[in-house]
């Protein structure tokens, strides 16, 4: 194989890799802009809800360099709410400060816009009513709905 043909193969593979990388970045940017647009166009909803679950998902990425290795961590703080009126569950990624102020079984009003968490107002007047049933899922939560 001659030097010219080796360079031609190299440039072809390099070109394919470059097109793939740029295409992936453009696709990610398009999806992000599309998601933001869909959220912006959706109505803001405020519903009575209870916090049914909280979790932290940690993602890490390792970079191996010539001199140093780097590990990057990203925590996603996720809270799952249940609509008290219909039982539907909604999961949102929230900021760490919000995550730390909300606890499981908090009752209040969830404000959101499609997939975008906006606010959760805890209703301190809401009462958990236990009818002596052993199963936690049989506990009923009362919440005033002022509209």
Describe the secondary-structure layout.
Elements: H1 3-41, E1 45-64, E2 69-83, E3 89-94, H2 96-101, E4 107-113, E5 116-122, E6 127-129, E7 140-142
Antiparallel strand pairs: 1-2, 1-4, 2-3, 4-5, 6-7
Features:
elongated; OB fold (Dihydrolipoamide Acetyltransferase, E2P); 5-stranded antiparallel beta sheet; 41% strand; disordered C terminus; alpha+beta; two-stranded antiparallel ribbon; 31% helix
Describe this structure in words.
The structure is a single chain. Helices cover 31% and strands 41% of the residues. The protein is of the alpha+beta class. The chain has two domains: 1-41; 43-142, OB fold (Dihydrolipoamide Acetyltransferase, E2P), CATH 2.40.50. It is elongated.
As a whole number of angstroms, the C-alpha radius of gyration is 24 Å
Distance between the termini: 79 Å
Order of helices and strands: HEEEHEEEE
Question: What's the arrangement of strands in the largest beta sheet?
Answer: 3-2-1-4-5
Q: What is the level-2 CATH architecture name of the largest domain?
A: Beta Barrel
In brief, what are we looking at here?
This protein is of the alpha+beta class. It has two helices and seven strands, in the order αβββαββββ.
């Amino acid at each position: 194989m001659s030097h010219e043909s080796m360079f031609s193969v190299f440039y072809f593979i390099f070109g394919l890799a470059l097109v793939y990388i740029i295409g992936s970045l453009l696709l990610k940017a398009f999806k992000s802009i599309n998601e933001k647009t869909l959220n912006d166009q959706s109505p803001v909803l405020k519903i009575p809800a209870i916090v049914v679950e909280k979790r932290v998902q940690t993602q890490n990425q390792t970079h191996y360099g010539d001199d140093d290795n780097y590990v990057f961590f990203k925590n996603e703080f996720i809270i799952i709410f249940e609509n008290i009126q219909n039982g539907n569950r909604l999961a949102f990624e929230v900021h760490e400060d919000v995550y730390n102020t909300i606890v499981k079984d908090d009752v209040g009003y969830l404000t959101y816009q499609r997939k975008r968490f906006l606010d959760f107002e805890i209703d301190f007047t809401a009462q958990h009513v236990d009818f002596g049933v052993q199963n936690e899922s049989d506990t009923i939560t009362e919440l005033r709905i002022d509209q």
